[in-house]
């Protein structure tokens, strides 16, 4: 973790803001209505449980962006910047439980600072040499640095270890928030099926899904079932 968290957070915030500005200019940024309210409600329930894993997340400035585009994708940038695309929810006809499992998985990547870890590895190997200069004098990221930050934070596929961590933490996070952990299995089955259709699923380009993964999520059910049951009783 040789890249400071503050630098990564600054990059993530800049990328998140730029993304939203472009979506707003195109008339695709959704910040009200039934779809947004649904995702926001789920996000808030998950966020309430996040301090169980990291106490400092209570200080994060959580934000949700919903972009109206036929894209099967979702992310959570460092610092709690969540992005969902309507295509993911609509095309896969996701239930609240399934949305929570996807969102929990993405939040887990942010909690474990997987993006920061990837950027640190890149800096250590000399792949990226300018990360120390996160902010230009005008307090805005240079185009080149912004593109590099976006690649390492959002586009570069996660390692098998990172994906396993996100699956495990995301499953428990969702269960603690009162969402059925069995939905983690069904949502990945839907995504795997979507990847075989026309155009594939962008989400799966950075989130490999296969029978081994589904089997792993299935094997975790007994561990998180009591957490789900306890949450439902509250």
Automatic annotation (TrEMBL):
<comment type="similarity">
    <text>Belongs to the peptidase M48 family.</text>
</comment>
<dbReference type="InterPro" id="IPR001915">
    <property type="entry name" value="Peptidase_M48"/>
</dbReference>
<keyword id="KW-0482">Metalloprotease</keyword>
<keyword id="KW-0645">Protease</keyword>
<keyword id="KW-0862">Zinc</keyword>
<dbReference type="Pfam" id="PF01435">
    <property type="entry name" value="Peptidase_M48"/>
</dbReference>
<feature type="domain" description="Peptidase M48">
    <location>
        <begin position="54"/>
        <end position="220"/>
    </location>
</feature>
<protein>
    <submittedName>
        <fullName>M48 family metalloprotease</fullName>
    </submittedName>
</protein>
<keyword id="KW-0378">Hydrolase</keyword>
<keyword id="KW-0479">Metal-binding</keyword>
<dbReference type="InterPro" id="IPR051156">
    <property type="entry name" value="Mito/Outer_Membr_Metalloprot"/>
</dbReference>
<dbReference type="GO" id="GO:0008237">
    <property type="term" value="F:metallopeptidase activity"/>
</dbReference>
């Amino acid at each position: 973790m040789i890249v400071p968290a503050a630098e990564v957070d600054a990059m993530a915030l800049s990328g998140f803001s730029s993304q939203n500005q472009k979506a707003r200019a195109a008339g695709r940024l959704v910040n009200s209505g039934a779809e947004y309210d649904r995702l926001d409600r789920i996000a808030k329930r998950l966020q309430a449980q996040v301090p169980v894993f990291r106490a400092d997340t209570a200080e994060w400035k959580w934000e949700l962006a919903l972009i109206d585009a036929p894209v099967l994708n979702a992310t959570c940038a460092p610092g709690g910047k969540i992005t969902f695309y309507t295509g993911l929810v609509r095309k896969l006809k996701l239930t609240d439980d399934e949305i929570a499992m996807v969102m929990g998985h993405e939040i887990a990547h942010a909690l474990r600072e997987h993006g920061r870890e990837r950027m640190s590895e890149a800096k250590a190997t000399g792949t990226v040499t300018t990360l120390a200069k996160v902010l230009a004098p005008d307090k805005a990221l240079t185009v080149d640095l912004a593109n590099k930050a976006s690649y390492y934070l959002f586009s570069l596929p996660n390692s098998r270890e990172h994906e396993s961590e996100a699956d495990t933490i995301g499953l428990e996070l969702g269960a603690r928030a009162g969402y059925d952990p069995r939905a983690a299995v069904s949502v990945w089955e839907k995504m795997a099926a979507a990847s075989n259709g026309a155009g594939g699923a962008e989400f799966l380009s950075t989130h490999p899904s296969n029978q081994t993964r589904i089997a792993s999520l299935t094997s975790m059910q007994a561990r998180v079932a009591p957490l789900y049951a306890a949450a439902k009783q509250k």
